[in-house]
Amino acid sequence: MSDRIDVPLGLEGFEVMSTEVVGDVLEVHVRSTRRAACHHCGSVDVTGHGCNERRIRDRSCAFPTVLRWRQRRFMCVDCGKTCRERHPELAGRRSITNRFRQRLFERACGEPITDVASSEGVSAYRVDEAFEHHAATALVDRNIEPPRVLAIDESAFRKRFRFHTVFSDPERGNIIDLVEGRGKGSIYGGLAAMSDQVRAHIETVVMDCHWPYRQAIEDVLPNVRVVADKFHVIRSVDAAAHRVRIRHGRRIRVVGRDGGLARQKNPRFMPGVWRSRWAFMKRASKLNHQDADALQPIFEALPEVGIAWMLKEQFALIYDAPDRIEAERRLELWLDQITAAGTPEFLNTWRTLQWWREQILNYFDDRVTNAFAEGITNKIKVMKRRSYGFRDPMRYRQKVLLSCCRRPSQRG
C-alpha cells in the first residue's frame, strides 16, 4: 500500500513523498528541500551529477521506520569537485538519524544494551556506539546542586574483588558521584572532584560504621556533622542478641552416628529455639499473640535469651527519644544494663560502638539516615544482574550515574 503520511516527520529539510508498509516496517520516501551547495567551497553554483537511494533508520512510529532518501550528487562549477547533499540530522555516513541515536542512548541508560537492541531491531554495536557518544556529554551537562546532606555507601563492582564508593544526596534524591575503591583514598578523590562551593555547603555526612570513611571526612571536612547510620547501629545490636540465642540454643551433648539416633530425631539445635528466629528478631510493637506465645516458654527455659531480647528492645527505644539529651540518658541506662547482665556478646558489640558514640548521638541533631544510599546500592545490584555484570569500570560508572540520577525529563 502506498499513500501520503498525515503526520509530519518533524525533520526540517525533508519532504515526505509517499509511505508504505513492507514486512512490518514503515518505509517513508523523502527528498531534501535544502538548497544545493558545494560543501567543499560553499558555492551554490552546482549542477546535477546523478543520485542514489539511501536507507536511514528513524525512530519508530507505530512501526519500525525507515527513511528512503534519494540523495542527489552535484558537481561544483567553481571548484570542479563533486559532492553529495547533506542533512544536519544525519551524522556523517551513519544509517540512522540523530534523534533515533538519542533515543537509543536514553533507553540504554536504564536498560541493558542487548535488550534495547532486540526491541529496536538494531545491532548491539549500534546501541553501544550511541551510548558512548552521548554518555560523556550527558555527564558533563549534569546540574548537581550543592547537597546539605551527603550520604556515603559502598557498592561492589565485582564481589570480593573490586568496590566503589557512592556519593549521593538523600534530600534531593540524586546520586552525585561514583569513585573506585572503598578506603580513605576514595573519599579524598570524591571530595576533590567537588568544587569548593559544594564542599562548603555540606553540613552533615551520614555513613555506616566504616572507619576509613570517617577518618577521611574528618581530615577533609573537619567541621561537618558525621552521623552513624541508624539501621547499621541497630542491626549490630540485634546481631549480638541473635548470637546469644544461638549460643543457648545449641545442645552441648549430641549423640553421634553410632549412638543409634538419626540427625532428624536428634538435632544439634533445640527445635523451639531454632524456629523462633523471626519472632525473636521482631520489634516488640510488631509481635502478635502467636509470636508472643512462642517466645514465652523459651524465655522461661533460657532466661539469658529473654534478657538479650529485652536489651535489644531497650536499645531500639533510644532512637525514639525526642531530643539528644533524652537519648544520651537512655544510652547511659542501657550501658548500665548490659554491664549488669555481663553478656559477652553485648559487651563486645559496645566495645566497637563506643568509638562511634558521638556519631550515634549526632542523629538526634539532624535526623538523617542512609536509607536513600542503600536504595541506590540495591538499584545498582539490579542493574548489574540485568546486564549480567560489567567488565569495564568506566562503562559501569557511566551507567550508574545516568540510570540513578534524576534527569530533567524525569522531574515532570
Largest sheet features: 5 strands, mixed
Residue share in β-strands: 15-25%
Could you estimate the helical fraction of the residues in percent?
40-55%
Total helical elements: 17
The total count of strands amounts to: 10
User: Globular, elongated, flat, extended or rod-shaped: what is the shape?
Assistant: elongated
The total number of structural domains is 3
Q: Low-confidence runs (pLDDT<50, min 5 residues)?
A: 1-5, 407-412
The overall pLDDT average reads 85
Structural class of the secondary elements? alpha/beta
Radius of gyration: 32 Å
Task: Measure the end-to-end span.
Answer: 40 Å
Order of helices and strands: EEEEEHHHEEEHHEHEHHHHHHHHHHH
How does this structure look, described?
The chain is an alpha/beta fold and 412 residues long. The protein folds into three domains: 1-93, no CATH class; 149-228 and 369-411, 2-Layer Sandwich (Nucleotidyltransferase, domain 5); 230-364, no CATH class. It contains 17 helices and ten strands. The strands form two sheets. Strands 1, 2, 3, 4 and 5 form a five-stranded mixed sheet that branches. A hairpin with a 5-residue loop joins strand 4 (63-76) and strand 5. Helix 2 (113-120) packs across helix 3, helix 7 (230-249) packs antiparallel against helix 13 (344-353) and helix 11 (303-318) runs antiparallel to helix 12. The longest helix is centred in the middle third of the chain and has 20 residues, at 230-249. It starts with 13 loop residues before the first strand and ends with a helix.
